[in-house]
Amino acid sequence: MTGPNRLSVFRRDNALDATWEEVPNLTINTTDDYIQFHINSTGTDFGEFALGRAEGPNSITLSTFTAIYANGSSMLQWITQSESENLGWNIYRSETDFENAFQINAHLIEGAGTTTEPTEYKYIDQYNIISGKTYNYWLESRDYSGNTETFGPISLTIPQQNEDNPDAPVILKNLCNYPNPFSSSTEIEFGLNKPADVEISFYNTKGQKVDSISRKHYSDKIFRTIWNAENLGAGIYLYVIKVNNNIYRGKTILIK
Q1: Average pLDDT, the chain
Q2: Is the pLDDT of residue 26 over 80?
Q3: Cβ–Cβ under 8 Å, residues 54 and 145
Q4: Which of 44, 151, 219, 221 is deepest in the core (most CB within 10 A)?
């Protein structure tokens, strides 16, 4: 294949900050069933290979990029309407401008590749945050060729500690789901100190929302609900429980 849609092979080593580079002078044979290529070893230890288009800009249609303060952490959320050859994401944070920003994710956040379907991502900033400070965040997408595109900034001001509401509904410590792992359905159970609006969102490891459960004005002291995941594939799923303005998280494993 030639021209802007030429199919190429890219490689990089195992370092976290390694960039993708195109394998030169490579013959790729394609059929309807498979793609075949052969690489001669040069003594360099490359840990990953990927197929992609050698030319053309990284194209991301980003519809939302937001940050909220919840349960003592900064939660970032973004939604794309389409992605083209998107290998993944990096997130940068700064109290001033991008030149002084640092990357907050240790590993590349997996992208959706090429898709015309909406994709939702979430990421929790694990670094320390200080009450009263304002933090700026940027998104960086990286394609298979190593090209990057930056979005942002967005800003989040961390509330003062005395702004917290001690009378707000909260989840008690007995947060769990059983069975875990599970094969088709699992029961999520936790205690509430007072009536609350409860919303549970479920995400796969790519950050895509796959299901949700909502209960308004739930008044029992013990919250119980069954999550049926028969139509989902096996793997690890994260669930985010929102009780009014408080956020809690859990993890469960679906086996088939």
Answers
A1: 79
A2: no
A3: yes
A4: 151
Is the backbone peptide bond immediately before 153 cis, with ω within 30 degrees of 0?
yes
Class of residue 233 by CB neighbours under 10 A (exposed 0-12, middle 13-18, buried 19+): exposed
Domain ranges in the chain are 3-53, 59-161, 166-254
pLDDT band at 63 (very low <50, low <70, confident <90, very high): confident
Query: 16: which residues sit within 8 A by CB, 6+ positions away?
Result: 106, 107
| Nearest-angstrom CA–CA distance, 97 and 79 | 23
Contact call for residues 169 and 242 (beta carbons, < 8 A) = no
Distance CA 120, CA 221 (A): 32
Which CATH fold topology does 166-254 show?
Answer: Immunoglobulin-like (2.60.40)
The DSSP letter of residue 23 is: P
Assigned CATH for 59-161: 2.60.40.10
Among candidates 47, 103, 109, 105, which has minimal Cα distance to 83? 109
Topology match between the domains 59-161 and 166-254: yes
Sequence-separated (6 or more) residues with CB below 8 Å from residue 201: 209, 211, 212, 239, 240, 242
> Token pair for residue 182?
């599970």
Task: Give the pLDDT confidence score for residue 186 in this predicted structure.
Answer: 93
Which residue has 């092979």 as its token pair?
Answer: 9
